[in-house]
């Protein structure tokens, strides 16, 4: 089952629709979906839309929700990173 996900400019999943919803509501046009999602934003002009629509494929909606729950962890700045970098005092 395909899902279309709008990711904002920071890479956060903001809106998700199924393949059927895309066909029924937006005539299978991801550009129309992007335009509808960006409509309320100040930079919503066609040339300045922010974010993108990605396609995810899962067996069911539960698998999609599990995947999106894993994306919930964000890096909270330099000191919140989980990598090998260490904070420095400059």
- What gap, in angstroms, lies between the N and C termini? 50 Å
Could you list the spans in which at least 5 consecutive residues all have pLDDT below 50?
75-80
Mean pLDDT: 75
Series of secondary-structure elements, N-terminal to C-terminal: EEHHEH
Let me know the largest β-sheet. 3 strands, antiparallel
Proportion in β-strands: 15-25%
**In which range does the helix fraction lie?**
25-40%
How many strand segments? Answer: 3
Total DSSP helices = 3
Q: How many whole angstroms does the radius of gyration measure?
A: 17 Å
Strand order of the largest sheet: 2-1-3
- Determine the structural class based on helices, strands and strand pairing: alpha+beta
Dominant shape: flat
Give your account of this protein's structure.
About 7% of the residues have low confidence. A three-stranded antiparallel β-sheet has the order 2-1-3. The protein is 30% helix and 20% strand. The protein is built from three helices and three strands; from the N terminus they run E-E-H-H-E-H. The protein is of the alpha+beta class and 90 residues long.
Characteristics of this structure?
90 residues; alpha+beta; 3-stranded antiparallel beta sheet; 20% strand
Summed up, what is this model?
Helix content is 30%, strand content 20%.
Please write out the topology.
Elements: E1 2-7, E2 13-18, H1 19-26, H2 30-38, E3 52-57, H3 61-70
Antiparallel strand pairs: 1-2, 1-3
């Amino acid at each position: 089952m395909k899902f279309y996900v709008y990711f904002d400019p920071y890479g956060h999943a903001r809106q998700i629709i199924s393949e059927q919803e895309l066909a029924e509501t937006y005539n299978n046009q991801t550009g129309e979906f992007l335009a509808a999602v960006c409509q309320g934003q100040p930079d919503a002009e066609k040339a300045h839309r922010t974010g993108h629509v990605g396609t995810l494929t899962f067996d069911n909606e539960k698998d999609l929700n599990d995947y999106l729950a894993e994306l919930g962890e964000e890096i909270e700045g330099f000191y919140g990173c989980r990598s090998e970098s260490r904070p420095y005092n400059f």
